Amino acid sequence: MTSALRTAVEFARAARRVVVTTGAGMSKESGIPTFRDAPNALWANYNVEDLATRGGFRRDPALVWRWYAERRTMIAAARPHEGHIALARWEERCDSFVVLTQNIDGLHAAAGSKNVVELHGNIFRYTCFDRGHDVEGPFPQDATPPRCACGSLVRPAVVWFGESLDPAHLETADAALSSCDVLVVVGTSGLVYPAAGFALTARERGARVIEVNPEQTPLTEIADVFVPGGARTILPELVPQTG
Ligand code: BV8
User: Fold this and answer.
1) Distance 23 CA to ligand 1 centre (A)
2) How far is the CA of 29 from the centre of ligand 1 (A)?
3) 120 a catalytic residue
4) Which residues in the chain are classed under CATH 3.30.1600.10?
């Protein structure tokens, strides 16, 4: 065990109130490509502004609908890995535990995590583009988005760039970051806000910050300990095995 992992294990073992924030790297070993790290990064062939914004959907709803349909098919075939499962087990042994995920794949809940905040929504949920009506799927994953009863186009119920996160989610995150002993940051490039700000917030409020990632990120200098490695390998070693 590396000295960094040993330090992280000590922090984890001493913690009773835990927050874990995860990004696309958490799901990579479940077979879901990340956004930015090559070679098959999701955005490799597209400009994110054309895919994950209201303007992009307005310009070409069929392109955006197809991109999500392809991802939904891939995600539906994915299963949680040992890292997701280790977090679900850890939750059972803590006084308080919350996962603040940027991922829209539902894998934390599928692994058994109970207290999960899907900051950027969920790819299997839908809403109406113009008025935000709840829209029940599933829909045929073919080329064009269906219509809401109000006549607007149906879109995935995810948070695009330039859209605000659910205020209730932000309140939950703020409360959790204010009272946690440890924040574990897993598999995020630390580029997208407000999630990228969680590490500094937790540190300023007295928590220990552990980062798990094969690569260093802008968050590494904020973390108390950087543990190089993948979520699937590191998390089962990091999570305390007893209460
Ligand atoms: C907001 C959902 C208030 C959809 C996503 C100008 C105008 C408007 C807004 C802004 C602006 N300038 C800045 C902003 C704010 C903007 C932002 O932060 N922009 C960045 C680019 C600067 N944020 C927003 O717009 C947010 N809303 O601020 O509202 C507001 C409103 C109006 C105007 C101003 C402010 C909303 C952001 C949410 C966007 N939605 N996704 C979808 O998924 O399709 S973003 C998407 O990318 C993800 O959800 C995630 O959040 C984000 C980053 O991706 P990561 O998860 O970090 O993944 P990435 O590929 O980047 O990195 C993978 C990492 O994993 C790497 O570090 C790699 O090393 C590591 N890894 C690899 N293998 C493994 C591993 N780790 C562990 N194990 C492994 N095996």
Assistant:
1) 8
2) 19
3) yes
4) 33-77+127-158
pLDDT at 44: 67
Q: Report the CATH superfamily, name and number, of domain 1-32+81-120+165-243.
A: TPP-binding domain (3.40.50.1220)
At the fourth CATH level, the homologous superfamily of domain 33-77+127-158 is SIR2/SIRT2 'Small Domain' (3.30.1600.10)
- pLDDT of 43 higher than 70: no
Q: How many whole angstroms from 176 Cα to the centroid of ligand 1?
A: 20
Q: What is the secondary structure of 57-116 as a DSSP string?
A: HHH-HHHHHHHHHHHHHHHHT----HHHHHHHHHHHTSSEEEEEE---S-HHHHTT-SSE
**Pocket-forming residues, ligand 1, beta carbon under 6 Å:** 23-25, 28-29, 34-37, 52, 102, 104, 120, 158-165, 186-189, 191-195, 213-215, 217, 230-231
Reply yes or no on whether the pLDDT at 74 is more than 80.
yes
Ligand 1 atom at minimal distance to the Cα of residue 35? 60
Peptide bond into 240 cis (omega under 30): no
